[in-house]
Amino acid sequence: MTGDPVTDAGRFAVLISGRGSNMLSLVNAARAGRIPALPAVVIANVAGAQGLHAARDLGVPTAVVEHQASANRREHDGKVLEVLREHDADLVCLAGYMRLLSPVFIAAYPGRILNIHPSLLPAFPGPDAQRQALEHGVKISGCTVHFVDEQLDHGPVVAQAAVPVKDDDDEDLLSARILEAEHRLYAEVLRRYYLGHLVVSGRRVRIQEPADE
Ligand code: GRF
């Protein structure tokens, strides 16, 4: 088991529902010094989420807050917020977290919740984005990191990466190609976030280059 030192560095939480490959890529990037912050906690809403094992193996604190145990979204989100506070998280990263957040949650972390989505938003929001892209016949898809607001896959776009759609792609092939781009993009956005390079103005987010400062 490896753990993180107690410091006053930024502390990000990752919320997952399943595999957790984006979560792992963020944790590994932080551990490698590419993100100047520590992974504070990984929270899953599903007890059997595969990513939980991987997080535990890396010595990252984990918590399960099962949504079925709550009467409604607000109650569930209240429990998740408690865990985030216990672990002193200052940024919430959704990574394959299959739940819409309630207004209470969003108000608790204003401008401090990010999500990654496997399409070039606003194209193909919601589930099965890669299948939607194939069915629509687009030649380029990709992934988007965006701030989270109350609507699904809707908040201000921070960064996007384009990925070609090939003639012989099926959903698995395209998803795998997009996932590689996701891992790179999300870690880079967190790096820039913690370096203080993101400048938000309404829906527009500029990534400031050090020379612009
Ligand atoms: C990713 O494609 C992400 O963009 C989407 O759900 C998938 C989660 O994959 N929101 P993983 O759990 O990070 O491996």
Give a written overview of the molecule.
With 213 residues, this protein is an alpha/beta fold. It has a single domain (10-206), classed as Rossmann fold (3-Layer(aba) Sandwich). Helices cover 33% and strands 24% of the residues. It has six helices and nine strands, in the order βαβαβαβαβαββαββ. It has helices at 21-31, 50-57, 73-86, 103-108, 129-136, 171-194; strands spanning 10-16, 37-44, 62-64, 91-94, 113-117, 140-147, 157-164, 198-201, 204-207. The strands form two sheets. The protein has a seven-stranded mixed sheet with strand order 3-2-1-4-5-6-7, with helices on both faces. Strands 8-9 form a two-stranded antiparallel ribbon. Helix 1 runs parallel beside helix 6 (171-194). It is globular, with a radius of gyration of 17 Å. The termini are far apart.
Key descriptive features of the protein:
binds 5-O-phosphono-beta-D-ribofuranosylamine, alpha/beta, single chain, Rossmann fold, two-stranded antiparallel sheet
Topology:
Blueprint: E1 10-16, H1 21-31, E2 37-44, H2 50-57, E3 62-64, H3 73-86, E4 91-94, H4 103-108, E5 113-117, H5 129-136, E6 140-147, E7 157-164, H6 171-194, E8 198-201, E9 204-207
Helix pairs in contact: 1-6
The protein binds 5-O-phosphono-beta-D-ribofuranosylamine.
How many distinct folded domains? 1
Give the cofactors and ligands.
5-O-phosphono-beta-D-ribofuranosylamine
Count of separate DSSP helical elements? 6
Content-based structural category: alpha/beta
Alpha-carbon distance between the two ends = 40 Å
Quick one: biggest sheet?
Answer: 7 strands, mixed
| Strand runs, count | 9
Provide the CATH top-level class.
Alpha Beta
